[in-house]
Amino acid sequence: MERLYRRFVNPGDLVFDVGAHVGDRVATFRRLGARVVAIEPQPALRTTLKLLRRWDRELVIEPVALGRAEGTVELKLNRDNPTVSTASPDFIRAAAGAPGWEAQAWTTSIVVPMTTLDALIVRHGTPAFIKIDVEGFEAEVLAGLSRPVAALSFEFTTIQRHVAAAAIDRCVALGYASFNAALGESQTLVHEAWLTAPQIAQWLADLPNAANSGDVYAIIS
User: Fold this and answer.
1) Would the N or C end of the chain have less CB density within 10 A of its end CB?
2) Could you tell me the domains of the chain?
3) What is the 3-class SS of 60-115, one letter each residue?
């Protein structure tokens, strides 16, 4: 994991981890010497992040969801698999009956505060890298960013390719020109040479459904 993120993160850099979950990426970013703002709206997952902060007082935790505007949002919780809790009703509908998602159930919900990437930048400074993993809400998160940072990543799923396409379009509007991807939890970039936006969009469209998920990486140059 460190080998991948070292491409984007240098010692002293600021990183936003959007959808920090239990902090696996947080720990990686900290080992790389980055300052980290961990954004996680789920109280149960923040308990683990707070344990990390006991040993790392520089870790900042933001107990909010992110979207295109300030306000509140209903977060649908998956108690058996909290990492796929989501603010996107469309994500839940897409998962219903989809291969590999049959056992997933979103049985309860909470209303959480929502802010934007722009607001977090005002509060904490401009990050060198933003990691976004928010189960179908990625394009909404990017809609709350009005100027680019050096690099970012967002999760995609094959059950919601249109969300990834919208996120790519938003990245292009922000000025991102080069794209790559990693499948699943491989932590390895698929493409030796970085792709244009149309090329990465076509690659995503051509992926077999069995690929399931991964992350798209975007850089300015």
Assistant:
1) C
2) 2-219 (3.40.50.150)
3) EEECCEECCCCEEEEEEECCCCHHHCECCHHHHHHHCCCCCCCCCCCCEEEEEEEE
